[in-house]
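Predict structure. Chain length: 228.
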Amino acid sequence: MRPPVNRTHRAPWVLFVLALILLVALGLRLHGVNWDDGHLFHPDERDIYMRAGCMYDVLTETRGSSRCGYLQQYPETVAGIPSPSVFFDAERSPLNPHWFPLGSILIYVMVIGRSIVELFTDISALDMRYVGRPLSALADVGSVFLLFLVGRRMYGQGVGLLAAGLAALAVIHVQNSHFYRPETFSVLLTLASFWAMLRMVERRRLRDSALLGLFVGMALAPKVNILP
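Prediction complete.
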C-alpha cells in the first residue's frame, strides 16, 4: 500500500464538487422512503420495527404489553424501566430482545427514536420506518463522505472525489439505504475504522489507536460477521 498522501490544501472547487456529490447521494437515498407503502416487504426490517415496538411498550408499561408479540413466550419479563438487578438478568430484563440474527443496537436505536418522536406525536411501531430509513440513508451518505476522506488521504483529492462519486451513484448502496438494516451502518463504521487506521499509521498517537478501537467496536454492533 502506498503511504498516505497529505493534502492540506483544499481548493474551493473540491468542496463544491464534494457538496454536490453528497447532495445527489442524499437525494437518491431519501427518494421514495415509503417505497412499499407501509407493507414492509423486507422481513428483517419488519422484525426490527415490531420487536422495537414490543420493547418500547414494555419499557413504558403500555396496556396489553404483556401480550405483545414475542414477549408472550417470556412472561417473566419485568415491565418498566429496569432496576440494576433486572437490567443484568437476561431472563427478566425488558431490554433483552430475544432475537439475535442482527445486531440488537438497531432495536435500541428505534426504541430511543420512538421515545423522542412520542414526545410530539403518537406513532406506531411500523410507522417508525419514517425514522429508520432516513437514518440508514444518512449513514450511507456518511460512507460516501468517508470514501472521499480515505481516498484523498491515500491518493489525493481527485481519487477521493471519484470514489465518492461512484459510491453516490452505486445502485446497491441506494437500495440498501431504503431499508433499516445493518449494512449501511456497518459500512459507515468500517470506513471510519479505515480512516482512523490511516491516522494511527501516520501520527502514531495513543488517541488515534483509541479512536480506531472505538470505531472497530462500533462497527461490530450492527453486524458482528463483518469481523472476518
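Summary: The chain has two domains: 12-34+132-226, 43-130.
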